[in-house]
Design a protein that fits this description.
The complex is a heterodimer of chains A (567) and B (345).
Chain A: E1 4-9, H1 13-25, E2 31-35, E3 51-52, H2 64-74, H3 81-101, E4 115-116, E5 126-127, H4 133-148, E6 151-154, E7 156-164, E8 167-175, E9 181-191, H5 213-220, E10 225-226, E11 231-238, H6 248-251, E12 255-257, H7 278-290, E13 303-306, H8 312-318, H9 320-330, E14 339-348, E15 351-353, E16 365-367, E17 372-373, H10 385-404, H11 415-426, H12 438-452, E18 456-457, H13 459-476, H14 490-514, E19 523-524, H15 532-535, E20 537-544, E21 547-554
Parallel strand pairs in A: 1-2, 1-9, 2-6, 9-16, 15-17, 18-19
Antiparallel strand pairs in A: 3-5, 4-5, 7-8, 8-9, 10-15, 10-20, 11-14, 12-13, 13-14, 20-21
Helix pairs in contact in A: 1-4, 1-10, 2-3, 3-10, 5-14, 12-13, 12-14, 13-14
Chain B: E1 13-22, E2 32-41, H1 46-56, E3 76-79, E4 82-85, H2 91-96, E5 103-107, E6 114-116, E7 119-120, H3 123-131, H4 154-161, H5 171-175, H6 177-181, H7 188-198, H8 206-213, H9 227-231, H10 238-253, H11 259-274, H12 282-305, H13 322-344
Parallel strand pairs in B: 1-5
Antiparallel strand pairs in B: 1-2, 3-4, 3-5, 6-7
Classes of the chains: A alpha/beta (567), B alpha+beta (345).
Chain lengths: 567, 345
């Protein structure tokens, strides 16, 4: 195959923006997007709430500066301040750009893009399209990519980077439709495969495929991962399924209520109440549950998200999707009664360590979106900043890769590497000695993570978590792929995804165990306060000789000094 | 295939047999069904049941699934004959309407090439989206983008708000009666998207897109069976979009433009005048004298031989109660006009 200039792995918001921008930067380049699903299925579509930008359409006195400060404070001062500046100052431009390309934003009475309040933000600056914002952004980007003639390899599962010394020669991937392992020689590769929070399985709001494939491939190729211990629990997951009820529900005025009928957020965030940052609200709910003020049910203890006072009209016009979901998955109509919710693993702040241009330490390899870690979210991401992140840094990574592609010689991927990958993926199909069931391993992984590496963490629990993950990795060596066919082998894909989750789970648990402080989403019961003297730094996790080795990286500071974080 | 079921089922559980369509092109010469019987409690979706079957009984059962929350559109399939999302379809709801007690039949979507089991190839749909330019070609040049917003009224937003709910799950494609006969037909989802683009004031290629839509296999081929709309998992009024394109075509391009438009116009005028069709001259009014002579003469001769010709126009009497009908017709036309005005505002 003719070598590509840019191969983008992942067809969500970051991947598609990268593709579009790369083509814009240099239309003569040979660019391809590989995705394990059709791009329009990507998890970007599930983002309901919106994207932050200081357009000042709603609050006339909003500024980029305030957005920057909210983001840094929200991230508990672990975000790199130069990166946050890029994120927030590019925001108005990129939201308008999407608008100019056809994204159907909801509108203000003066016909400008509508904005609403969101957690952790000083002023209402979250731009939205009712509660389908991510879906409409993804549609717009996919449409524009089709218009531009981007080449798509849909339903290809990425397996490995081909590495020569310090640089990549391209990607090896499996064509799901044929089961063939194929080489994608490329000058540059951009990973944009989304997050890894699905490792918490039933206690996760994520799509089944948010298994951190890009992060795991990069990690196995020796590229460091950053801040993996920071996993955000979204306060309002549906009790039974973990599926998400958007923060927009609280943005529109929803209450959190315990079984005593009390709006308990008054005790945790007197001023912001329900619109405190996600880590704080999740911890508050978890505390209510732990202290016996939740509602009991066979499907677990929960608290109420009450929207009934908002009225049928508002719920129908602004939150139609969450009404549908509440009815479908809980049998509750939010117009009539409160929604049963509890916190659910939702977002991975950590990811592939990149600079502000999406570059990794390996020549020719880039990362963007939830897959990467620039870092703009620090220890806790604000609602409305993740769509923004994928757009801004997807575009930057696409631009950088397109600019730099010609710097690198085109690679060729040795046949022997394809053979190795094929043998590896088919290894689990042999009946002798392979007996472990994928589903049981995955279930156990989710359970141990939720129990030992969850919202509240503690030394002995984390130690137990690390041991259990390591046992699971041992058991995984005996995993059996029961479906032996070549054509669209989803059983094989699930097993390969589980391998990725196991590798990443180890880095999450190791980082959490090492970090002896509480910061943002990472809460250590045994180290309950933020320890800036020892821990104001990023964690790096690198695979060296098959072992996770932890290192560190300083946080880039700027205008804003460390402060106590209160809401 | 069945698995042993606990005889003392917990209250609130039912034994359900999933009759799953199977086909693996690598080994099967033709498709077949496998039965899997599992206990299912209230509140469980079809997707969760399929996941259970895949994990506990037969790992080779193949289907797509991703978000599991009804927003990504991956798990479209036919459940007891009706195309819908497996992740939002409750097993007990399906059972209540099931023709065969305790059995749920699960099949792949129709009208798209089969890949394996419940998985179909979505590429033909993507190709059609490309063919009909299902994107906004912005009136704003690329170089000036990002500087200022278009000002869009709430009214305009509402024109395409519902249409942008479409998640391309292809349920409508699967249910479409035209696609069953003609795979080249544009398809409901693509008409919906085309409509959404055409009513957006930011778009610059309305006329070009419309010109493509009125060609063969386009918007005039729809027979108004409404199955697309009935099966839409997001309850989008797809037929409104199809009618919208047709009305737009007649308004923008004139009624003389295509045979489809002329056909519709002929229907309207007959119904208004007589309350029924004047079939004898319908082909001439739709396709012209030359086309009718060239294409329908042999059939007309055969019809005459068999004494099956429709009566000539002077012999077509007005339908009974035509006066009341005309009054209703006028009222309806007035209503539609008002409706359009409020749409256009």
């Amino acid at each position: 195959m003719k070598p590509f200039d840019v191969v983008i792995v992942g067809g969500g918001g970051a991947g598609l923006y990268a593709a579009m921008e790369a083509m814009k930067t240099n239309p003569s380049l040979n660019i391809a997007v590989l995705s394990k699903v059709y791009p329009n299925r990507s998890h970007t579509s599930a983002a309901q709430g919106g994207a932050n930008a200081a357009l000042a359409n709603k609050a006339k006195d909003d500024t980029v500066e305030m957005h920057i400060f909210d983001t840094i404070k929200g991230g508990d001062y672990l975000a790199d301040q130069d990166a946050v500046e890029v994120l927030c100052s590019e925001a108005p431009k990129i939201i308008r750009e999407l608008e100019n390309m056809g994204t159907p934003w909801s509108r203000m009475p003066d016909n400008t893009i509508a904005q609403r309040p969101f957690g952790g933000a000083t002023l209402p600056r979250c731009c939205y399209c009712s509660d389908k914002t991510g879906h409409t952004i993804l549609q717009t980007l996919y449409e524009q990519c089709l218009k531009k003639g981007v080449i798509f390899f849909n339903e290809y599962f990425a397996l490995n980077l081909s590495v020569n010394g310090s640089r990549s020669r391209g990607l090896i991937a499996m064509n799901m439709k044929s089961g063939k392992v194929e080489a994608f020689p490329a000058r540059t590769v951009i990973f944009a495969t989304g997050g890894y929070a699905k490792m918490y399985w039933n206690r996760s709001s994520n799509a089944a495929g948010n298994t951190g494939d890009g992060q795991a491939i990069a990690f196995r190729s020796g590229i460091p991962l950053k801040d993996m211990e920071f996993v955000q629990f979204h306060p309002t997951g549906l009790r039974k399924s973990g599926l998400l009820i958007t923060e927009g529900a609280r943005g529109e005025g929803g209450y959190l209520v315990n079984k005593d009928g009390e709006r308990f957020m008054a005790r945790y965030a007197k001023e912001k109440m329900e619109l405190g940052p996600r880590d704080l609200v999740s911890r508050s709910i978890e505390t209510e549950i732990l202290e016996g003020r939740g509602f009991d049910s066979p499907a677990g203890t929960y608290i109420h998200l009450d929207l009934t006072h908002l009225g049928a009209d508002l719920i129908k016009s602004r939150l139609p999707q969450i009404r549908e979901m509440s009815m479908q998955f809980e049998g509750v109509d939010p117009i009539e009664e409160p929604i049963p919710i509890r916190p659910t693993a939702h977002y991975s702040m950590g990811g592939i360590d990149t600079d502000n241009f999406g570059r990794t330490v390996m020549e020719g390899v880039y990362a963007a979106g939830e897959c990467g870690c620039v870092s703009v979210h620090g220890a806790n991401r604000l609602g409305g900043n993740s769509l923004l992140d994928i757009l801004v840094f997807g575009r930057i990574a696409g631009h950088t890769a397109a600019e730099e592609a010609r710097k690198f010689e085109p690679g060729t991927i040795p046949e022997v590497e394809l053979k190795e990958q094929l043998d590896a993926v088919r290894g689990g199909m042999h009946s002798s000695g392979n007996y472990e069931r994928y589903g049981a391993l995955r279930e156990d992984l989710g359970k141990t993570l939720a129990r030992n590496v969850g919202i509240y963490r503690e030394s002995s629990l984390l130690q137990k978590g690390i041991e259990e993950i390591s046992e699971l990795k041992e058991r995984f060596k005996k995993v059996r792929v029961f479906d032996t066919s070549d054509v669209f082998n989803t059983n094989l894909m699930q097993v390969l995804e589980l391998k990725n989750m196991l590798d990443l789970a180890e880095t999450v648990a190791a980082g959490a165990y090492a970090r002896e402080e509480s910061r943002g989403s990472h809460t250590r019961v045994d180290f309950p306060v933020r320890d800036d003297a020892n821990w104001h730094k990023h964690t790096l996790a690198t695979l060296i000789n098959g072992k996770v080795v932890l290192g560190e990286k300083p946080v880039t500071m700027g205008r804003y000094e460390l402060q106590e974080r209160t809401y | 295939m069945t698995v042993p079921i606990d005889q003392h089922l917990e209250e609130g559980k039912k034994d359900v047999t999933f009759r799953v369509f199977r086909f693996n092109p690598q080994v099967d010469s033709k498709s077949y069904f496998d039965d899997y019987t599992i206990p299912v409690e209230r509140g469980i979706t079809v997707l969760r049941s399929l996941n259970y079957i895949k994990e506990h009984i037969d790992a080779s059962v193949s289907f797509r699934a991703f978000c599991q929350a009804g927003i990504c559109g991956s798990c479209g399939m036919r459940i007891n004959g009706l195309s819908q999302l497996a992740c939002t379809t409750q097993v007990w709801d399906v059972l209540a309407k099931s023709r065969e007690q305790g059995i749920i039949k699960v099949e792949p979507l129709r009208n798209l090439p089969l890949v394996k089991d419940l998985i179909v190839d979505m590429d033909p749909l993507v190709d059609k989206m490309k063919h009909y330019s299902n994107w906004i070609d912005s009136t704003m040049p690329e170089a000036s983008m990002g500087k200022k917003e278009f000002l869009i009224s709430e009214e305009e937003f509402l024109r395409y708000d519902k249409a942008t709910d479409c998640i391309l799950c292809a349920s409508c494609v699967s249910e479409c009666s035209i696609l069953r006969a003609n795979k080249e037909y544009v398809s409901p989802a693509v008409l919906l998207k085309s409509f959404r683009m055409n009513v957006d004031s930011r778009d610059s290629i309305h006329d070009q897109r419309l010109a493509e839509l009125v060609k063969d296999h386009g918007v005039w081929d729809c027979t108004h069976c409404y199955r697309c709309q009935e099966s839409c998992v997001k309850s989008i009024p797809i037929m409104d979009a199809i009618h919208g394109i047709r009305e737009d075509a007649i308004e923008t391009r004139g009624v003389k433009d295509t045979s489809g438009a002329k056909h519709a116009e002929a229907f309207m005028s007959d119904i208004e005048k007589k309350g029924k069709l004047v079939e004898a001259t319908l082909p001439i009014r739709t396709n012209g004298v030359v086309w009718t002579l060239q294409n329908l003469l042999p059939m007309a001769v055969k019809m005459i031989m068999k004494r099956r010709t429709p009566p000539p126009p002077p012999l077509v009497k007005s339908a009974k109660g035509i006066k009341i009908f005309r009054e209703m017709f006028r009222e309806m036309t007035e209503h539609v006009k008002q409706d359009h005005k409020s749409h256009k505002k």
